[in-house]
C-alpha cells in the first residue's frame, strides 16, 4: 500500500502542486484547511523568506512557503501546529510537522553560522551551503525523552504549571550533549521527582510540535526513592492507580499512548496504537 505522505526534496523551479504557508504565528488556513493551490498562494505577494519542496501527498507535490511575518488574507486565519496534532487529520499533521521542521531550519540558516555570509540551498539535497567557507548546514533534530514510570498497578504522573488545569502527564526532558537516551531518562527523573528507576524499555517515538523535537518514548519501573517535585518545574507528582486515573493528555500524544498502553496491559484490554 502506497503511503499517503512521503517526504522528498522537490525542485522549486517547477510549477503546480499544493503549498502551505507558515509564519511565526503558525500555518495559514481557510475553510478548506492549510493546503492551497501553490500558484494562487504565490500570487498573493506574501513576504516569503524561503520556498522548499517538501514531499508528496496522495501523489501530489507539496511545497512550503516560509514567511517573514504573518499577513491578513481574506477568509483566512493562522493556526498553530499543536492544534492540528490534537484535532486534525493525522496525515495532515505529519505534513505540517515536517513543514514546520524545514521552515525552522530554513529561517535559522539563511546566513552562515561560521562567517555570516548568505547561504544558498543545495539542489536536490536538504542542505544550505556557504560558498565562502564551504560550511553545509542540515536540518537539526533534538532528541527528547518521555517516560512512564510504573509500580505494579500504579503509574507516576506529574503536572507542570504550564499544563491545562487538572491534567497530569508523564515526565519528559531534552537530552544533553554526550548523553544516551537512557542517561537522559535517568537524569531527568532524578531532577524532576528524585526517584531511581530500573528495567528501562524503549516503546516508540513521535515528532513533537516544537522546533526540531523528536520525542523518544520509554517505560521504566520504579526502583527506589520518595517523590520530591522539582521546584518551578513540577507543580505536583503522584502515584495513580490504573483503575483511577486523573485527566490525561490528548489521545494523539505519545504521553497518552504510554499511559493507555500500560493501563491496557494491566487491565487486559486491547492495546492502543501509537499514531505514526
Fill in the CATH topology of the largest domain.
Answer: Nucleoside Triphosphate Pyrophosphohydrolase
How many domain units? Answer: 2
Major sheet summary line: 7 strands, mixed
Structural class: alpha+beta
Radius of gyration: 21 Å
Q: Indicate the overall shape.
A: globular
CATH class bucket of the largest domain: Alpha Beta
Number of strands: 16
Which spans of ≥5 residues are poorly predicted at pLDDT below 50? none
Q: Topology as H/E string?
A: EEEEHEEEHHEEEEEEHEEEH
**CATH homologous superfamily assignment of the largest domain:** Nucleoside Triphosphate Pyrophosphohydrolase
Strand content: 25-35%
**Second rung of CATH, namely the architecture of the largest domain:** Alpha-Beta Complex
Helix content: 10-25%
Mean pLDDT across the residues is: 94
Number of helices: 5
- CA(first)-CA(last) distance: 15 Å
What does this entry look like structurally?
This protein has 276 residues and is an alpha+beta fold. It folds into 2 domains: 5-108, Nucleoside Triphosphate Pyrophosphohydrolase (Alpha-Beta Complex); 142-267, Alpha-Beta Complex (Nucleoside Triphosphate Pyrophosphohydrolase), CATH 3.90.79. The chain has 5 helices and 16 strands. The strands form 3 sheets. Strands 1, 2, 3, 4, 5, 6 and 7 form a 7-stranded mixed β-sheet that branches. Strands 11, 12, 13, 14, 15 and 16 form a 6-stranded mixed β-sheet that branches. It has a 3-stranded antiparallel β-sheet with strand order 8-9-10, with no helix packed on it. β11 and β12 (154-159) form a beta hairpin.
